[in-house]
Amino acid sequence: MTSPDQADYVTTVDGVLQITIATAANGTSMDFNAIVAGTAALRSLGADIGAVLLTGTGANFCAGGNVRGFAAADDRAAHIYGLATDLHHFVRALDATTVPVVVGVQGWAAGAGMSLVCAADIALGGPGTKLRPAYPGIGLSPDGGMSWTLPRIVGLGRAREILLTDAILDAEEAVRLGILSKLVTADEDVRTEALNLARTLAAGPRTTYSSIKTLLAQSLSSPLSDQLDRERDAIAAAANGATGREGVDAFVQKRAPNYS
């Protein structure tokens, strides 16, 4: 599934497309070779993929953009415009993905790294996980969709406070706000637990997950009456689908369903 250019950043394990978005070698700042490779992989997802996992290989999930690279650019506006364009292609591809997107957040998720945490369906962290917008600290404004996702997670008022004050959120606060889904016991277990969760989801009812994600996305701009109609149509269609038939039959027969 991956080309030689993607191989360092994109792998497939047990139905999970794993994308490494930051590496220790890159100082745990966002690696845009990874972002471009990840976008290509997301756009060509095959039926063998049942979940996506975003991870970093260094001490941090992602410490944000390469600020030294910003400073060194001859035309800073053009440089950052290009990076934001690539990142936003990636975020759009994530948003269009019908399978669950899991993030394992070890250490810091700052700047665009925090944006990707907010873009995930489920985000796991550890006791030492910290999140920070980081944009005011370098005099820049948000990218990666944070100005859209964060208010929808924490509410507009709290999003204003977090962004304007460049708040540092510890792990427990991030869980309380709903940015992180839950914490694992030890920081060193974050990547493993995130991969285990992604594997479990990949083995689950994929058409059900796709329907859930579609309904949730539609609910953001849908009146309740319209949403009720969509839910009725979706559950009726699922009842005659292979996944729905297997799930119901397995329940009645008191056995574990096989969604493979």
From TrEMBL:
Keyword Isomerase: yes
PANTHER family on file: EG:BACN32G11.4 PROTEIN (PTHR43459:SF1), ENOYL-COA HYDRATASE (PTHR43459)
Family: Belongs to the enoyl-CoA hydratase/isomerase family.
Gene Ontology MF: a single term: isomerase activity
Keyword annotations of the record: Isomerase
Protein known as: 2-(1,2-epoxy-1,2-dihydrophenyl)acetyl-CoA isomerase
InterPro entries xref list: ClpP/crotonase-like_dom_sf, Enoyl-CoA_hydra/iso, Enoyl-CoA_hydra_C
